[in-house]
From TrEMBL:
Pfam families: Toluene_X (PF03349)
Protein name: Aromatic hydrocarbon degradation protein
Protein's membrane topology: Multi-pass membrane protein
Entry keyword set: Cell outer membrane, Membrane, Signal, Transmembrane, Transmembrane beta strand
Localization: Cell outer membrane
Biological source species: Sphingomonas aracearum
Primary location group: membrane
C-alpha cells in the first residue's frame, strides 16, 4: 500500500483502540472517589466543605484552617455487568454482511480496582498552601479474546496521576478564595483484534501504548456565615497529548505487509471542564443539609486527533451533562457523625456513538457513611456506595482499514445489562 494507505490503516487501528472510557461507577471515564467523607453523602456539598479532603473540588476549602492537616483515602471498586451481542455484523471486502461470531456475552469486563488519593494543607494565618494527589481517570477492562466485542475492545488500561498544588486566602470573615494547577500524567495501554480478509483466518491484533504530561488549572470561592456555606469552583478542561507506539500483528494475505510497529504516534484529546456549585446548610446543631451541582463540558471530547504519521481525527460525539447530589450529615455526638446521600448523573455518550469499550449509561448513586474522631487530632471516615446503571444500547458503526481497498465495516449492535457497582471507601485524617 501507499504511504497514505499505511496512515489510514494506522488511523483505523487507533480509532478502534483509543477511546478511553468505561469506568463502571462514574460518568464516562471520570472517577470522583477522591474523599471517603464525600463518598458517604454521595459527593453532595464537597465544594462548600473545608479541609484537604475537599481540595480536589474547591481550592478555597483550605483557607483559614486552624491547624495543618493530612487526609488519606482509598476506595475499592467492585463493578458488575453484562455486555451482550444483539446482532453485530461485519462485511469483509467482496462479501456480504455476516455475524462477527465469538462469545455473545461478556460478563464483568471492567476489572475491580483500588483507587488511592491524598491531600495536605498547611495554614499560615489567613493563607494556606495545599497539595492533592488523585487519580481522576483510571480503569482497566479485559474482554475475552473470543468476545463478540473484540474488534472494538480487548484490553484497556488507563492510569492518571493528578498533582494539584493550591493556595487559598481567607479574604474576609465570610469569603475564602483559592486557586491551583492540575498537573496530570497519563499512561495508557489499549488493544483490540483486527479482522483478516478471510473469515476462516485467525484475527490479527493491535496494541497502542502511550503516555504524557499535561496541565490545567482550578479556582474557587466559598461564602459562609454561621449557618450556611456556598462554594463555587471551576476546574479547566485539559488537552492531553500522548506519545507512544502502535504495533500491528497477525494480519495475513493481502494485509500481511501491514504487520509492523509505528513509533512516535501522537494522539490528542480533551477531558472536560467542571463547573461546581455546592452548599452546606446547618438545619440544627446536629443536622447539616448538603447539595451539589456539577456541569461537565464533555462536548470538549468531540474527537481524538492523531498527528504524524497518521494525521486524521476520530469523532467521539460526547455531550455536556449535569450531576445532581443531595445528602445529610448528622452529628450523633462530638466524636461520631453519620451521613447519607443520593446522586443522579447522566451519561455523556450518545446513542449511535456508544461502543463496547465505552458501555456507559445513566446511573443513580446511593451512599451511606460515618466519621469517627478517635482523638482531637486523628479521625477516620468510612463510606459505602451502590451505583445502579440503566440498561443501555451499544451501537456504533466503525470500519477497519477505512479508506483502503480492504475497508471492513463493523456494525456494532449490543446492550449493557444488569450493571451495578459497589464502592467501599476508607479515609484517615491527622492534624498537627
Amino acid at each position: 500500500m501507499s504511504h497514505r494507505k499505511n496512515a489510514l490503516l494506522a488511523a483505523s487501528a487507533i480509532a478502534a483502540s483509543i477511546a478511553f472510557a468505561g469506568a463502571a461507577h462514574a460518568q464516562a471515564f471520570y472517577l470522583q472517589e477522591q474523599s471517603a467523607r464525600g463518598a458517604g453523602r454521595a459527593f453532595s456539598g464537597e465544594a462548600a466543605d473545608t479541609g484537604p479532603q475537599s481540595l480536589w473540588w474547591n481550592p478555597a476549602s483550605i483557607a483559614d484552617l486552624p491547624n495543618a492537616e493530612v487526609a488519606l483515602n482509598v476506595s475499592t471498586i467492585l463493578p458488575k455487568g453484562d455486555v451482550r451481542d444483539n446482532g453485530t455484523v461485519i462485511r469483509r471486502p467482496g462479501q456480504a454482511f455476516t455475524s462477527v461470531g465469538g462469545n455473545s456475552s461478556s460478563s464483568d469486563p471492567i476489572n475491580n480496582g483500588v483507587l488511592p488519593s491524598g491531600a495536605i494543607a498547611i495554614p499560615f494565618g489567613r493563607v494556606a498552601f495545599g497539595l492533592a494527589v488523585t487519580s481522576p481517570y483510571s480503569f482497566t477492562t479485559n474482554y475475552d479474546a473470543d468476545s463478540w466485542a473484540r474488534y472494538s475492545a480487548d484490553k484497556t488500561k488507563l492510569r492518571t496521576v493528578d498533582i494539584q498544588p493550591s493556595v487559598a486566602v481567607a479574604v474576609t470573615d465570610w469569603l475564602r478564595v483559592g486557586g491551583g494547577a492540575n498537573i496530570e500524567y497519563t499512561d495508557a495501554y489499549l488493544s483490540n483484534a483486527l479482522p483478516n480478509i478471510s473469515p476462516v483466518a485467525a484475527d490479527g491484533s493491535q496494541v497502542l501504548k502511550g503516555d504524557g504530561w499535561d496541565v490545567g488549572w482550578t479556582a474557587g470561592v466559598q461564602l459562609h456565615n454561621d449557618w450556611a456555606t456556598v462554594g463555587i469552583s471551576y476546574k479547566s478542561d485539559i488537552k492531553h497529548t500522548l506519545k507512544g507506539d502502535l504495533e500491528i500483528a497477525g494480519l495475513t494475505g493481502a494485509l500481511a505487509g501491514q504487520n509492523r510497529q509505528l513509533s512516535d504516534v501522537k494522539a490528542t484529546f480533551y477531558t472536560p471542564a467542571q463547573i461546581i456549585v455546592g452548599g452546606r446548610f446547618r438545619a440544627t446543631d446536629a443536622l447539616t443539609l448538603n447539595t451539589q451541582f456539577v456541569r461537565y463540558t464533555w462536548s470538549k471530547f468531540d474527537a481524538i486527533r492523531l498527528g504524524t504519521p497518521v494525521n486524521t481525527a476520530i469523532p467521539e460525539g460526547y455531550r455536556d451533562i449535569w450531576s445532581y447530589a443531595a445528602g445529610v450529615d448528622y452529628a450523633v455526638s462530638p466524636k461520631l457523625t453519620l451521613r447519607t446521600g443520593v446522586q443522579r448523573t447522566n451519561t455523556p455518550t450518545e446513542d449511535g456513538e456508544r461502543d463496547a469499550r465505552v458501555p456507559d449509561s445513566n446511573r443513580w448513586n446511593f451512599a451511606a457513611g460515618a466519621s469517627f474522631q478517635a482523638t482531637p487530632r486523628l479521625g477516620f471516615d468510612l463510606a459505602a456506595n451502590y451505583i445502579d446503571f440503566k440498561d443501555e444500547s451499544i451501537d456504533r458503526v466503525t470500519a477497519a482499514y477505512a479508506g483502503t481497498v480492504a475497508q471492513t465495516p463493523i456494525v456494532t449492535n449490543g446492550r449493557l445489562e444488569n450493571a451495578h457497582a459497589l464502592v467501599f471507601s476508607l479515609g484517615g485524617r491527622f492534624s498537627f
